[in-house]
Specification:
Length: 357
């Protein structure tokens, strides 16, 4: 397993190796591993070497969508953002953080809050107390019923066939016609990937019930933590299985001295009180209203994506929240939203913003 923790999984080619170098230097945000490894992405370097920094994006028709932040040193990142905007005309940035929002704000972009990215600061994070009782109960409940949680990062532990079997069973429970979200989420890989940690819940007969995969977070060549990436479960798996896995993973990463575990984005959610979080940038008020409406809309939560439940679950961990942003150069975004939702695998957009864009 030590070999698996040594380096990120990237294509074995010069450009892939250079992106791996940039990832290990600057890959400390939620979408970093996704940006470096997601199939079909394009990469912008402003004429430089990818190992010195790059921006991942995908082009859909007339639109270029940047995925998260560039993987670049803080002193180079603003120039890379400005060069990308100059080269692509009117690109859109999706789930970027403050490090990218600031130079975009200076370029006159509308920077709209698209939800919190949840973060557990592991050195000071405690699993004791009433708020974390649900995690302890889940682990105890599973243990009393002979379910076992373990890390299985080798192919002869958690096999590709087991990965696919559980994923296909999970897919069968999704509403007819729905697709897995891509771009913001990287696709399932059924074989071990260097750096990726895989935690599994098995029943007394050794059958896989749940698994959770964690992508690595890097800074200055070292692994500082992980981000929850892939979660799958059988339809009849115990409802507490994922919580038992998460408790075990948190304890493992704390023992290793990791700095952070990120739980990822709660799309469109406001702050914990339910209000839209304060935005220090020029926000698109129409889009912000639409995002808030979408988060609370019953037909979206019941038939498309359980946005409210998603946010409530992550907040049960009692971590910190970092805001993320959708940044666009124009006020009206109908065309961009349509292109983005289709590219992400949603046949019909979650939201319908009136007007041209």
């Amino acid at each position: 397993m030590n070999a698996l923790l040594a380096a990120p999984a990237v294509p074995r080619d010069p450009a892939g190796a250079a992106r791996a170098t940039a990832l290990r230097r600057h890959g400390d945000f939620t979408l970093a591993y996704n940006a470096a490894t997601h199939p079909g992405l394009e990469y912008f370097t402003a004429g430089g070497d990818p190992k010195d920094g790059f921006l991942a994006y995908r082009t859909v028709g007339a639109y270029a969508f940047a995925l998260g932040d560039p993987l670049a040193a803080p002193e180079r990142l603003p120039a890379l953002v400005r060069a990308f905007v100059a080269a692509k005309g009117k690109p859109v940035f999706v789930q970027c953080t403050d490090r990218t929002a600031r130079p975009l704000h200076e370029l006159g972009y509308y920077v709209t809050d698209m939800g919190p990215d949840h973060r557990l600061d592991l050195p000071g994070y405690s699993l004791s107390g009433k708020p974390k009782e649900w995690l302890r109960y889940a682990a105890n409940w599973c243990g009393r019923r002979d379910y076992a949680v373990a890390e299985e990062s080798e192919a002869d532990e958690l096999t590709p066939a087991e990965v696919r079997e559980v994923s296909e069973a999970w897919r069968a429970t999704r509403p007819l016609g729905t697709h897995e979200v891509t771009f913001l989420n990287r696709p399932l890989v059924d074989v071990p990937e260097p750096g990726v940690r895989r935690f599994v819940l098995r029943d007394a007969d050794g059958v896989v019930q749940n698994y959770v995969f964690f992508d690595p977070l890097y800074r200055d060549g070292r692994t500082i933590g992980y981000v929850t990436c892939i979660k799958r479960r059988r339809p009849d798996a115990p409802s507490l299985g994922e919580a038992a896995i998460m408790k075990h993973a948190i304890e493992t990463f704390k023992e290793e001295g990791r700095e952070v575990l990120r739980l990822g984005l709660s799309p469109l959610a406001g702050d914990e009180s339910g209000r839209r979080a304060a935005n220090p940038y020029r926000e698109n008020k129409l889009l912000a209203f639409t995002f808030g409406f979408g988060f609370g809309a019953g037909w979206i939560n019941n038939k498309k994506y359980a946005l409210a439940n998603h946010a409530e679950y992550k907040r049960r961990f009692r971590g910190a929240e970092d805001r993320t942003y959708y940044a666009a150069p124009t006020f009206l975004n109908t065309g961009a939203i349509l292109a983005l939702t289709r590219m992400m695998g949603l046949r019909r957009p979650l939201l319908n913003v009136r007007g041209r864009g």
